[in-house]
Amino acid sequence: MLVRPFPSRNYVVWAWLGLIVLSSGSLCTPSSVAIAQAQTKDHDHDHDHDHDHDHDQADEPGRHVHGEITMNIALEGNILSAELDSPAIHVVGFERAAQTEAERARLTAANTWLTSGRNFLGVPRAAVCGPVNQNYVPPAEDAKHANYRAVHEYQCDNAEALAWIELWALRKLEGVEKVTLNLIINGRQEQVVLDGKTERVTLR
Question: What is the pLDDT of residues 41-56, one digit of tens each?
């Protein structure tokens, strides 16, 4: 496990990086430990891995590297926040204007998912978490090398039960090889580097 300090900024109730797009819906309702599988299969992978790109969005924080995403998780009191920052290639399968009905359908599905926050994050049922806020603005449809970012916030009635989280968002993404996970747990900061298949992360 790689541990480093990382910069932070204030967002909603948590101080911390402004990168990413995690979602929240089926996350934290007590009945949610079953997840619908991602419908983002069969994407065309016409990209080169590990290549940095010039960003078309001037306000884009962080790097745009194919194969890599960033996720931020913060717990402050009983408020759990999750943020995802991912190159578009992993979300919709392309990084240009949609050219077919199938590609337009992928954009619609991605926007619906990231707005709703369903199938985004998993937590113990005993934590009794439910969504209370979200922030997601889709990238311009014709942006090249765009990043998808979403933030979802949950209130957990029994935050002491948050022994772990599961990165359900990985099930909706494709071609992820590296996850940089930034954690702020009641003031404790930690950075963990994961492969694209590891979902569960302990918080203690």
Answer: 333 434 343 434 443 3
